[in-house]
Amino acid sequence: MTIDTIIVGAGGRGNAYGNFALEHPADLQVVGIAEPDALRRERFIGLHDIAPSMAFEGWQELLASGERKAATIINCTMDRMHFDSTMKMLELGYDVLLEKPMSPVLDENLQLVQKAEQTGCLLQVCHVLRYTPFWQALRAVVQSGALGKIISVTHRENLSFSHMAHSFVRGNWRNAGTSGPMILSKCCHDFDVLLWILKKRVRRLQSFGSLMHFRPENAPAGATERCTDPCPAADTCKYEATRLYARAGSGFPLNAVSWTPTAEARLEALHTGWYGRCVYFCDNDVVDHQTVTMEMEDGATVSLIMNGQGDEECRTMRWDGTKATLYGKFAASGDEIRIHHHRSGEVETVPVIARDSSGHGGGDFGIVRSFLNTIKGQPDDSVTTARESLESHLLAFAAEESRLNNSVITMEEYRNRF
Ligand SMILES: NC(=O)c1ccc[n+]([C@@H]2O[C@H](COP(=O)([O-])OP(=O)(O)OC[C@H]3O[C@@H](n4cnc5c(N)ncnc54)[C@H](O)[C@@H]3O)[C@@H](O)[C@H]2O)c1
To answer: What spacing in Å lies between the alpha carbon of 236 and ligand 1's midpoint?
Structure first.
């Protein structure tokens, strides 16, 4: 059975999910597009052979008639557009696959969950990690009891220095006022998988972090406001933009600079666009490192460390249980899970199925498959309901409040506030 969908927002994410339809036309067909950028919209129309009457300049135009035009919508607009658009989509009866975070405004998350429950529509949030072979393997180990009772977890979200600069200094998620706090934008995924694997709620948490490095006072002497100007640090600065972006090719992060896949188009975009700016002179205010310490309901402790100065983009973790210790690495360079059994001293390598070609370790296609299965009435056990996603978002908001107010948050009280 082929399910039809309209993609709203033909940027990085809209294309990632659109690619699923191109590779699996018997499962998903993209019949409509809403995107204000004419170049992106036309490219999408061509790729998916969309009828002119189903191409819209934005979600507002798509929904204006009040008629439902397909069974589902994949909402890939930016964070601050999620709430108004998704509320309307649910009112019109669409099942919605919504990009994370649901909303950077706490109260709006609750309203979205309530709206989905009132309308009976499916609202599934793109917590892509759940749908990867790596996280499913890690979860299976923990839930098998092979590690014993979990006492302590250290989980690191290591952003590479270039991804940090691209997304959280120069790009879409640099400013809490236009996107949201970084611990929500980047780590709602991490809270989600931790809760999903531990199957326990958080009792208390506290958080520290700041914007330590990407400030004007840390700029190299004489640095210019754009890397396309003659900057004295051009040969030594690791963030120099023409080195990072002025090349041919496609995909993340190059498409964010220009969808025209040539070095010349990218260089031209760097002269005026966000990504040519010096990282020390941007309008960024989100943190560049943050830690969250959590005490679970059974007393186990979990540390989440988010860091933007990594050499390699990866998540790494250590799970200490009463029987064994697990070391893991989730990375494009190779997924690894090793269990060190305490009594025998034996070291066991856990096989992880190879990732498919889609982004986020195979999660991008995995979540679309899960969404389609849920619509067909065959939900898998990874499926995340909007209500379940709410808890990961609440933890992120609570962590931000703790960081800003220097407080320890008791989650039961926090949940009862809303
Ligand atoms: N699940 C994940 O792991 C993951 C990863 C990256 C981003 N995201 C989330 O996905 C969302 C989109 O991120 P992205 O990287 O694709 O951003 P993007 O900027 O590449 O794409 C957003 C698109 O929305 C379009 N748009 C703007 N106004 C619109 C309107 N009124 N109607 C329809 N479209 C409109 C923009 O022109 C743009 O093409 C964000 O919420 C982001 O946080 C999730």
So the answer is: 33
